[in-house]
Structures are given as structure tokens and as C-alpha cells.
Design a protein that fits this description.
mainly alpha
Length: 83
């Protein structure tokens, strides 16, 4: 008798089974979305690290250029003085 109760033209068991399937699908969608979000966060972290490394390299190269420029100026000055 209970199984014959109708909800919107369907018996309760069929209706419950449909809801369970839909719930499982939603859980799967949420899990997939969470996985994609984690991947995106990881990609952003990697990009941030690469950007930081590039900035550090640029700073180091710029410091190296400045040091070599000073040395070159000093050598030019000494050449003029001793020649």
C-alpha cells in the first residue's frame, strides 16, 4: 500500500530513486568543480612562483649590469690616465 502512494503521478519508491540519482549527480558535479578549482589554484601558485623567480632574476641581472658598468667605467678611466 505504501509503495503505491503517488507523488506527482509517480510512486514514492521511483520518486525517491530519482532523487537519489539526482543527488549523486550533484555530488559528482560538486566534486568535479572542487577538483577544477584546486587545479586552478595550483596553476596560479606555480605562475606566482615563476613571476617571483623572474623578478629576482631581473633584479640580479640588473645588479650585475650595474656592477659591470661601474667596473667598465673604472677601466676606461684608468686607461685614459695611464695611456
Amino acid at each position: 500500500m505504501e509503495s503505491k502512494l503517488l507523488v506527482g503521478g509517480k510512486n514514492i519508491i521511483d520518486h525517491t530513486n530519482e532523487q537519489q540519482k539526482m543527488l549523486e549527480m550533484k555530488r559528482h558535479e560538486i566534486a568535479e568543480q572542487t577538483r577544477r578549482e584546486r587545479e586552478m589554484q595550483q596553476q596560479m601558485f606555480v605562475q606566482d612562483e615563476e613571476t617571483l623567480e623572474l623578478r629576482e632574476t631581473f633584479t640580479s641581472l640588473q645588479q650585475e649590469v650595474e656592477a659591470k658598468t661601474k667596473k667598465l667605467k673604472k677601466v676606461k678611466y684608468l686607461r685614459r690616465y695611464f695611456m
